[in-house]
């Protein structure tokens, strides 16, 4: 059983603040069977080189979210930088 999305959103807050310094943000888009889906939001003024790579973000955020909810088994980040 997973915790509510508010618990996961709260756990992400510190990392959202760090990303916001570089003009980016994270959005929780869904939770399904222990898999947390996040979207990395970048804008025209975002320092995309300042943000960790997608695999590194997923690894760090998995640790953070598992601490908040041990039922989390995977984090998938929709990263628009991969389309660049």
TrEMBL record:
Gene Ontology BP terms: iron-sulfur cluster assembly
InterPro entries: FSCA_dom_sf, NIF_FeS_clus_asmbl_NifU_C
Pfam families xrefs: NifU
GO molecular function: iron ion binding; iron-sulfur cluster binding
Residues covered by the NIF system FeS cluster assembly NifU C-terminal domain: 10-75
Name of the protein in question: Unannotated protein
Naturally occurring in which organism (per UniProt): freshwater metagenome
């Amino acid at each position: 059983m997973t915790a509510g999305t508010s618990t996961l959103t709260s756990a992400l807050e510190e990392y959202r603040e760090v990303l916001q310094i570089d003009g980016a943000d994270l959005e929780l888009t869904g939770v399904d069977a222990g898999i947390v889906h996040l979207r990395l939001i970048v804008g025209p003024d975002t320092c995309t080189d300042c943000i960790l790579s997608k695999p590194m973000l997923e690894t760090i955020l998995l640790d953070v979210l598992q601490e908040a909810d041990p039922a989390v088994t995977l984090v998938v980040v929709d990263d628009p930088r991969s389309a660049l």
